[in-house]
Amino acid sequence: MLIAGFPAGAFQTNCYVVAPAAGEECVIVDPGQDAVDGVDELLREHRLKPVAVLLTHGHLDHVWSVAPVCGARDVPAWIHPDDRHLLSDPAAGWSPTSSSMFGGITLSEPDDVRELSDGAVLPLAGLEIVVDHTPGHTRGSVSFRLPDDEVMLSGDLLFAGSIGRSDLPGGDYPTILRSLADKCLPLPDDTVVLPGHGPQTTIGRERATNPYLKEAAPHAGPTRGI
């Protein structure tokens, strides 16, 4: 499997391309601010043909470039319905104070938007991508898991040493703890976590060191059998 990425824009939001191998079809995950050139460079470098854009949630720093990326390649965007409104109203995802920073920004939906649901398996680019609804950062936040739980694209649910903020519209701290308990803690320790910001990590490392996963642990149900 090929996974490549880069931090895009002022927010340094990680944008990824995922494919079975070089020279094949791929999906693009979270094309944020000024991500178009970086995406084009990765596609050229690895000779990839995109078939879809996947969005972990609707915050501006993750969806900024989705319309131009989808439009240039004539591919659909996938997002959870609870965050779809943020594609055309990005200020709704920010506090009144911070949303003033984005007053001059106008975004629009791509021509083809499709909706994600919890537990769905997306057969895209020769991969089977599992969707986990993981609210708490936003109502429509999702994470994506790749074959046999080898990789989790966590968006702004889980970072190396931290988690996504829950103080913006649609965020809720008890809810994000429940998402961590239900969707992260049952995964194998060697699952690689590719977050929306910062360096990659593993579930085992976060289970051992991340204070928020420790806080989430009492909320977890029975762990998955090994």
Automatic annotation (TrEMBL):
InterPro entries: MBL_Glyoxalase_II (IPR051453), Metallo-B-lactamas (IPR001279). Coiled coil: none annotated. Transmembrane segments: none annotated. Its cofactor is Zn(2+). The keyword Zinc applies. Pfam families: Lactamase_B. It comes from the Bacteria. Keywords: Hydrolase, Metal-binding, Zinc. Residues 12-197 form the Metallo-beta-lactamase domain. This is MBL fold metallo-hydrolase. It comes from Nonomuraea guangzhouensis.
